[in-house]
Structures are given as C-alpha cells and as structure tokens.
Amino acid sequence: MKDTECIGFLQWALPRLGMRWAGFRRVRGQVCKRLAGRLSILGVRSLADYRELLDTDAAEWRQLDGLCRISISRFYRDQGVWWYLEQRLLPRLASQALPRGESRLRIWSAGCASGEEPYTLALMFALGAVPPGCEPEIIATDADPHLLARARRACYPPGSLRDLPPAWRAVFLQAGDERCLPRAYRATVRFLEQDLRRNIPNGGLGLILCRNLVFTYYRESLQAAIALRLARALLPGGFLVLGARESLPEPVSGLVREQPWLYRREPR
Fold first, then answer.
1. First to last CA, the chain
2. Is the pTM of this model over 0.90?
3. Rounded to 5 degrees, what angle do the CA atoms 219, 114, 16 make?
C-alpha cells in the first residue's frame, strides 16, 4: 500500500467517523499499517475495493473505527502538566472540598487507553500529593475493550514508567519483563467501556482529564459538542485538563481558561 493511497483513503474515511485528517498526519503510519493488515485478513486487494466493501457493510465501519484509534500512552506523560496537577491543582481541589465536608473527589480519565493516566493519578493520591482526608474516585473510560483488559491487568514494559519519579517507580513489582502495579494502588480506579462520542459518566465531577484524543483527532464540530458535555459534567469550580498542546476549538459557556491546556468551570 502506497503512502499516497493511504492518505487519500484516510482523508475520505476519517470525516465519516467524526475524525479529522489534520490530527493523523504524524501517526498515519500506524493506521496505514493496521489497514494493510485488515485488507490482508479480508482478502481485499486494494483500498478502492475496501471502499466498495464499506459502501455495503455497516459492520466494517466499526472495524475501521477501531483501526483509527491512536493509543500512545505512558505514565506521567507531559511532565509539566503532571507537576502542575500535583503541586497546584489537586491540593486546590482538596482545599475546596474539605471545608464543605466532602471527603471524595470524583475524577474522570477520558480515553484512558491501557490505564497509565488514571494509575498516575492514583499514585499521586497514594504517595501524598494531596492532603489527607480527600479520597479519589477515579473513573477511567475507553472505547477499546482490549486496551481496558490491559489496564485492569496493570502490567507494563519498563519504558512506559520512565518518566515517573524514582520513588513512584519503586512501588511496581517485577513480573518477568514487565512491571506490575500492586492491587493496593489500583483500588481507587474503576474502568468502564465507553465511547465518549456517545456516552460520558454521570456529572458531579471535580476533575476531567481529556488529553490527546478529542481535541487532536476529532472534527471541530464534534469537539465543540463534546466540550459542552464535559463542561456540564463538571461541578462548579471543577477543572478540565487537555493535552499540553491542545485547546478548545471555541469558547464554551461556563468554562474559563486558566492555562493553555486548563479550564475551570465557573461557579453558578
């Protein structure tokens, strides 16, 4: 499969999946490789023939949607964002909750892939980044059941842990060539299979992490619709965290920008 052929196919197919070509330029090799494998499995000779198949087989669109999911993930990805969460944002949220008599902070990790992001949050709480008395309830969602199975297993190659502080890496247990997070550090995380284009957790969230997914890969019209739903799911004073190089495509009612990648839900 030639690169130009794959690019032309993606430019045609991605908008039909609610995605945009601009987000896939740098990662197209990953998707094109998956496409080539899918064509081989189906015995389809070319992308032109595959397009004809898509015209008559709605179920194949679901297969293609899965092929176009990008899951680049590791612990503590974008260290500056995590530093800000640890030093500023989580203590701030805890200080708001405790005077109200609230001992639980509900957090959503959207598009959690194989679990590195929600487990990083769980480690932050377990290892003392947040004042005692405020416990997390971390909801982690992804549309890919295979990634969620890996997340629940909680075992990772050493390279996935390379950005973690040394004291945090030390809590992982050796298991062959992998490092596994003990069950005690996983208790605050609950994984759900959800596609946030269609479903999101119930409201009452103090913090939402929606990083390197919606606002990179989805079409702007879909970004705007999802951003509004995210805003409504936040408690007043809650925060929405995007990827370090992401921003909302347009202003969203009720959200105030505090950092290029950070938005706060205004009090009612």
1. 54
2. yes
3. 20
- Fill in the amino acid letter for 212: N
Architecture of domain 79-265: 3-Layer(aba) Sandwich (3.40)
- 216/69 Cα distance (integer angstroms): 12
Where are the domains positioned within the chain?
A: 3-67, 79-265
Pairing of strands 155-156, 205-209: unpaired
State the Cα–Cα distance between residues 149 and 111, nearest whole angstrom: 14
DSSP code at position 171:
T
Of the candidates 43, 37, 15, 31, which has an alpha carbon nearest to the alpha carbon of residue 67? Answer: 31
pLDDT digits (tens, 9 = 90+) for 51-87: 999 999 999 999 999 999 987 788 999 999 999 999 9
How confident is the model over 124-167, as pLDDT tens digits? Answer: 999 876 666 778 999 999 999 999 999 999 999 999 999 999 99
pLDDT at 215: 95
Q: Which of 123, 115, 135, 242 is nearest to 190 (CA)?
A: 115
